[in-house]
Each structure stands twice: as structure tokens, then as C-alpha cells.
């Protein structure tokens, strides 16, 4: 099913993100991941997105997971795809492989620089910006295209207004849905919606949610994404940072509160970053007013 049709649903659409496991004993890790996904399947997700590692490091693993999700879970998979390290002919070849799997959707991103590189470098005969990739996918395939949005502004962008202009370019190039980076303060998301409306962006904007499950996770998230954690939440986390069970409960309770406010304000869906685990996501979804 195409994303633009999925979000015609009257109820908030539930979707998940996973990533290809890395390291040793990959097959065992993938089997464990699918047990987690089978647990999450009871929530009837409309699709599962599968990330694409920095520099295309998990390119084939992404496709392998996509195939298995479709075959074993009968859930619509949506592969991520980036501009990193590929020429146009290589991109077209990969897109053709995706279409051979009879997929309908793709999440198009510029992508992060490969490990060890500080700045994104445009590949030879490739693309330097996500809007260029979106336009190329739109021109060469029938895929429905999702893109990323940044309620607190992309870290490489000067200001949110400039970032909204970049988002508008992606929409004009052919994007059908916007999935946001995670955030913990809904005010940023609501302000983002106001700014996108002012920019005449009228496609569905889906909030990205990551339930907090450990204190070190919060520190890493802040470092990588630059997202802000409300002071009241941060104080709770700091108070109980040495108690894993308390941190998990605080994280779930906060995510439930956050999601219910978003639902009450009419978001078309929730895209949950699962980190390949079912526990926190299940606890949140079981508690929501859906």
C-alpha cells in the first residue's frame, strides 16, 4: 500500500523503524529481531521502515530485511535510501532492485557522512541534497516517497526557516509524506507544523517518537541529534539514572503523555523508533488512547 493512501486513514497510523543488526552472529541477531517484530505486529503497524547505514554500509542487509518483513510478517516494508557514495547509475540499479520486490514506498534521505568523515561529500555523478534524490526517484520509478523533517532544525542548517525551505524543495520534488526526527518537547513539533503551513506544505507530517529506556541513551541522543529534553523530564532522569527499571518507567510514562497530546491534536500517525526492541514500544502503545 502506498504511503499517501495509508495516511487517508481516520485513525492515527502506527509505524515502526528498525535497523539492520551489525557485528558478529548476524543471523542470530536477525532472528531475535523478528521475534521482537512478531510481538509488535499485534499493534497492526501499517508499515515498518528499515534504515540504511552510513555510507550505504547496510545496503544489502536492508533489502534482505525488507524481503523477510514482507514474506513472514505480511507488513508493508519501507526501505531507507541515501545519496551517500553512489552515482546515478548505481542509484538507478538499486531502485530497480527495490521495484523488483514489488514495493511501493521508499524513505529518501541525503544521509550522514561515512564513519571518519566530518562533512558530506557529493559523490561523482551523484547527488548532494535529498531533494535531488527525491526528484530522481520520482522521475525514474513509481515509488511513493517519504522524506525526513526536523522540528528542532537539522544540525547542519543555519535556522529553522532555512530548514523549512529545504523541506519545501523535497516536497516540490515529489515527496508524499514527512517523517520527523525524534523530539521530546511537543512545542517544537507544533511550532514546526505552523511553519510548514505558512510554507504551503500540505502533505502528512508524522512525528517520530523514541521512548527513553536508559540514561546513557538520552545522553547519546542529545549528542547525536541535538534535540532538547524538557528540564522537568531531565531532572527525573538524573534523579533515577542509576535505576534501570525506574528510567524505563519514566521513559514509557513520558512517551505516553507525549503521544496522547499529539493524538489529541490530530496527528495522522506515530512513527516509533523501536531500536529493534519491543518492550518499550509495546508498553507505550498499550497505554495510548487509540
Beta-strand fraction estimate: 15-25%
Q: How are strands sequenced across the largest beta sheet?
A: 1-2-3-4-5-6-7-8
Number of strands: 8
> What spatial form do the alpha-carbon principal axes imply?
globular
Describe the model:
The protein has 290 residues and is an alpha/beta fold. It has one domain (3-287): TIM Barrel (Alpha-Beta Barrel), CATH 3.20.20. It has 11 helices and 8 strands. The two termini are 22 Å apart.
Key attributes of the depicted protein:
15% strand; eight-stranded parallel β-barrel; 290 residues; single chain; TIM Barrel; 47% helix; alpha/beta
Q: Which secondary structure elements does this structure contain, and how are they paired or packed?
A:
Layout: H1 3-6, E1 13-18, H2 26-40, E2 47-50, H3 59-73, E3 76-82, H4 88-100, E4 105-109, H5 130-140, E5 144-149, H6 160-173, E6 177-182, H7 186-198, E7 205-209, H8 215-225, H9 231-239, H10 244-264, E8 269-273, H11 279-287
Parallel strand pairs: 1-2, 1-8, 2-3, 3-4, 4-5, 5-6, 6-7, 7-8
Helix pairs in contact: 5-6, 10-11
What is shown here, in short?
This protein is 47% helix and 15% strand.
Amino acid at each position: 500500500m502506498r504511503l499517501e493512501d495509508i495516511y487517508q486513514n481516520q485513525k492515527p497510523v502506527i509505524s515502526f523503524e528498525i535497523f539492520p543488526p551489525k557485528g558478529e552472529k548476524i543471523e542470530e541477531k536477525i532472528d531475535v529481531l523478528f521475534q521482537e517484530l512478531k510481538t509488535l505486529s499485534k499493534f497492526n503497524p501499517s508499515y515498518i521502515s528499515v534504515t540504511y547505514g552510513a555510507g550505504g554500509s547496510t545496503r544489502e542487509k536492508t533489502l534482505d530485511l525488507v524481503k523477510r518483513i514482507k514474506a513472514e510478517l505480511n507488513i508493508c516494508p519501507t526501505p531507507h535510501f541515501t545519496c551517500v557514495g553512489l552515482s546515478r547509475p548505481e542509484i538507478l540499479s538499486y531502485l530497480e532492485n527495490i521495484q523488483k520486490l514489488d514495493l511501493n514506498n521508499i524513505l529518501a534521505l541525503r544521509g550522514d557522512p561515512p564513519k571518519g568523515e566530518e562533512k558530506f561529500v557529493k559523490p561523482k555523478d551523484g547527488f548532494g541534497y535529498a531533494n535531488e534524490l527525491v526528484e530522481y526517484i520520482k522521475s525514474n520509478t513509481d515509488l511513493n516517497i517519504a522524506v525526513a523533517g526536523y522540528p528542532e532544525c537539522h544540525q547542519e542548517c543555519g535556522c529553522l526557516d532555512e530548514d523549512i525551505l529545504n523541506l519545501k524543495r523535497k516536497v516540490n520534488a515529489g515527496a508524499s509524506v514527512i517523517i520527523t526526527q525524534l523530539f521530546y518537547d511537543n512545542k517544537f513539533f507544533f511550532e514546526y507544523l505552523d511553519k510548514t503551513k505558512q510554507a504551503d506544505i500540505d502533505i502528512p507530517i508524522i512525528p517520530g517518537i523514541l521512548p527513553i529506556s536508559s540514561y546513557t541513551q538520552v545522553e547519546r541522543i542529545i549528542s547525536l541529534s541535538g534535540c532538547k529534553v524538557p528540564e522537568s523530564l531531565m531532572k527525573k532522569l538524573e534523579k533515577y539514572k542509576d535505576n534501570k527499571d525506574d528510567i524505563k518507567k519514566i521513559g514509557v510514562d513520558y512517551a505516553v503523555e507525549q503521544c496522547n497530546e499529539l493524538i489529541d491534536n490530530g496527528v495522522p500517525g506515530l512513527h516509533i523508533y523501536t531500536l529493534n526492541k519491543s518492550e518499550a514500544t509495546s508498553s507505550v502503545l498499550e497505554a495510548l488512547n487509540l
